[in-house]
Amino acid sequence: MKQKKDRVSFALSLLTHIAAAITILCLLFIIAYILIRGVPNLKPSLFEWEYNTDNVSMMPAIINTIIVVLMTLVIAAPIGIFSAIYLVEYAKRGSKLVKVILLTTETLSGIPSIVYGLFGSLMFVISMKMGLSIMAGSLTLAIMVLPTIMRTTQEALVAVPDSYREGSFGLGAGKLRTIFRIILPSAIPGIMSGIVLSMGRIVGETAALIYTSGTVAQVCTNIFAPGSTLAVHMYRLMSEGLYTEQACAVAVVLLVFVIVMNSLSSYLGRKLVKG
Amino acid sequence: MQLRENAMRIVFMLAACFSIVAVFFICFYLFINGLPAIAKIGPMNFLAGMEWAPSNNLYGIFPMIIGSIYVTAGAIVVGVPIGILTAVYMAYFCPKKIYRIVKPAVELLAGIPSIVYGFFGLVVIVPLIQDAFHTSGNTVLAASILLGIMILPTIVSVSEASLQAVPDSYYEGSLALGASHERSVYFVCLKAAKSGVLAGVILGVGRAIGETMAVIMVAGNQAVVPGSLLHGVRTMTANIVLEMGYATGLHREALIATAVVLFVFIMIINLSFSALKRKEAKA
């Protein structure tokens, strides 16, 4: 039996559906607009090796981006995973140290990227004399993505059933062996989903990199040389005001990358739930 | 064997302490470099000064503080109602099939880089406002709309999680008393999830006030207190990015001091967020 709805209920139902539609339409509109405007501008010349003012190729920026992503993860992933292991497998719940760690991690995840950028420039670029460099940028980003990696790894470790641990201990394995042979392998999909998520953040980051790794549009020659990533490259093209078409093409590349990373991350996340 | 166990235990613990060290260094470097400037300029002249004119040695960031508050408030007006309603839709209205589309869509909205949002705002929202009001499109309004869209995913996912945590018995009890589905959801479940939803809103506020790249593309960046929604505005974050590249001496320190003020804002927002989350966990 379907009851006729009173006015308040009808209005609420209508508002809810409209709001949900707006959210989805926003996303679809942004993606469609960028693709439609950007894809025609994706010319092969934009992927040439050399960058110059006639041809603002994004290839150097892509290579720099890959280097920055790898360096950041090499620094952040072990620290993030190890701290999650400590929090889940070793620490007593509710101990003072754990509380402080959780509080600082939360603080880190709330700090805006421009503050990270300024801090990176003060500490790594100036105080530690690295200069504007890929290294300074990666260190800054490593601190920035640390909370993401920690949180997702923690969730993945907590999801590993206790019977695995008990089984391993029961067979005579030590704590360390249990962690590396039993717990980590079964938590891999969850950990990977966190790492992929932070890759997306690194690729999209601009504000934290402008004053740490610089805006030079060349491939960095070594890790202490400056170089702009794809997002910084796009910012430069936009702020110069002459290269809107090319900026749009970069936006397509960024967007496609983020979509791929997001789907990969949620696929890995689902795998964890099933496994 | 025992030695290795203990050694690794210490390694894990040191790794875990890294976040403490990081927060300490961030505070240390910001305050050491920023506070002297505030002292030199004078706290009142700095925080309440109406003029930002580094060439005349005037460093008042009041317009930027107001600017940040304006665009954040605008983002709340745009983003919060839509965000909460979308969360309600996902938790109580959405068929399973559609949920499987909506959920990743919201996650994707969170993943889009802010520079891409900025580009979208610059080429879509700004011209729209230009045509509609015949003014320069780089306005408080444009920044508010753009930030409203950007904080949607934060508000949606935190609110949705806390709505999902409301026990089913609340909803069922309300239905049994004769309330309609919508009334039960809005007047019982949403009310029960209140503090979680508020936490989501606060987190969104933190995002909005800290957002940089998208805002500088659409806000116009004039360092004066905006007279209306259709005037340009400069936020604290924009102030730092725009001038850090060439600033020297006291000017540079004043920019770092701006970051200190921003940092304090964020800390207050964060603390109220975690206080609310604790309250929710207790309830």
TrEMBL record, chain A:
<dbReference type="GO" id="GO:0005886">
    <property type="term" value="C:plasma membrane"/>
</dbReference>
<dbReference type="InterPro" id="IPR005672">
    <property type="entry name" value="Phosphate_PstA"/>
</dbReference>
<comment type="similarity">
    <text>Belongs to the binding-protein-dependent transport system permease family. CysTW subfamily.</text>
</comment>
<feature type="transmembrane region" description="Helical">
    <location>
        <begin position="247"/>
        <end position="268"/>
    </location>
</feature>
<dbReference type="Pfam" id="PF00528">
    <property type="entry name" value="BPD_transp_1"/>
</dbReference>
<dbReference type="InterPro" id="IPR000515">
    <property type="entry name" value="MetI-like"/>
</dbReference>
<feature type="transmembrane region" description="Helical">
    <location>
        <begin position="100"/>
        <end position="126"/>
    </location>
</feature>
<feature type="transmembrane region" description="Helical">
    <location>
        <begin position="182"/>
        <end position="203"/>
    </location>
</feature>
<keyword id="KW-0472">Membrane</keyword>
<keyword id="KW-0813">Transport</keyword>
<feature type="transmembrane region" description="Helical">
    <location>
        <begin position="56"/>
        <end position="88"/>
    </location>
</feature>
<dbReference type="InterPro" id="IPR035906">
    <property type="entry name" value="MetI-like_sf"/>
</dbReference>
<feature type="transmembrane region" description="Helical">
    <location>
        <begin position="132"/>
        <end position="150"/>
    </location>
</feature>
<dbReference type="GO" id="GO:0005315">
    <property type="term" value="F:phosphate transmembrane transporter activity"/>
</dbReference>
<feature type="transmembrane region" description="Helical">
    <location>
        <begin position="12"/>
        <end position="36"/>
    </location>
</feature>
<feature type="domain" description="ABC transmembrane type-1">
    <location>
        <begin position="62"/>
        <end position="265"/>
    </location>
</feature>
<dbReference type="GO" id="GO:0035435">
    <property type="term" value="P:phosphate ion transmembrane transport"/>
</dbReference>
<keyword id="KW-1003">Cell membrane</keyword>
<protein>
    <recommendedName>
        <fullName>Phosphate transport system permease protein PstA</fullName>
    </recommendedName>
</protein>
<keyword id="KW-0812">Transmembrane</keyword>
<keyword id="KW-1133">Transmembrane helix</keyword>
From TrEMBL, chain B:
<dbReference type="InterPro" id="IPR051124">
    <property type="entry name" value="Phosphate_Transport_Permease"/>
</dbReference>
<keyword id="KW-1133">Transmembrane helix</keyword>
<dbReference type="InterPro" id="IPR035906">
    <property type="entry name" value="MetI-like_sf"/>
</dbReference>
<comment type="similarity">
    <text>Belongs to the binding-protein-dependent transport system permease family. CysTW subfamily.</text>
</comment>
<feature type="transmembrane region" description="Helical">
    <location>
        <begin position="141"/>
        <end position="163"/>
    </location>
</feature>
<feature type="transmembrane region" description="Helical">
    <location>
        <begin position="254"/>
        <end position="276"/>
    </location>
</feature>
<feature type="transmembrane region" description="Helical">
    <location>
        <begin position="12"/>
        <end position="32"/>
    </location>
</feature>
<dbReference type="GO" id="GO:0006817">
    <property type="term" value="P:phosphate ion transport"/>
</dbReference>
<comment type="function">
    <text>Part of the binding-protein-dependent transport system for phosphate; probably responsible for the translocation of the substrate across the membrane.</text>
</comment>
<dbReference type="GO" id="GO:0005886">
    <property type="term" value="C:plasma membrane"/>
</dbReference>
<dbReference type="GO" id="GO:0005315">
    <property type="term" value="F:phosphate transmembrane transporter activity"/>
</dbReference>
<dbReference type="Pfam" id="PF00528">
    <property type="entry name" value="BPD_transp_1"/>
</dbReference>
<dbReference type="InterPro" id="IPR011864">
    <property type="entry name" value="Phosphate_PstC"/>
</dbReference>
<feature type="domain" description="ABC transmembrane type-1">
    <location>
        <begin position="65"/>
        <end position="273"/>
    </location>
</feature>
<keyword id="KW-0812">Transmembrane</keyword>
<dbReference type="InterPro" id="IPR000515">
    <property type="entry name" value="MetI-like"/>
</dbReference>
<keyword id="KW-1003">Cell membrane</keyword>
<feature type="transmembrane region" description="Helical">
    <location>
        <begin position="105"/>
        <end position="129"/>
    </location>
</feature>
<keyword id="KW-0592">Phosphate transport</keyword>
<keyword id="KW-0472">Membrane</keyword>
<protein>
    <recommendedName>
        <fullName>Phosphate transport system permease protein</fullName>
    </recommendedName>
</protein>
<keyword id="KW-0813">Transport</keyword>
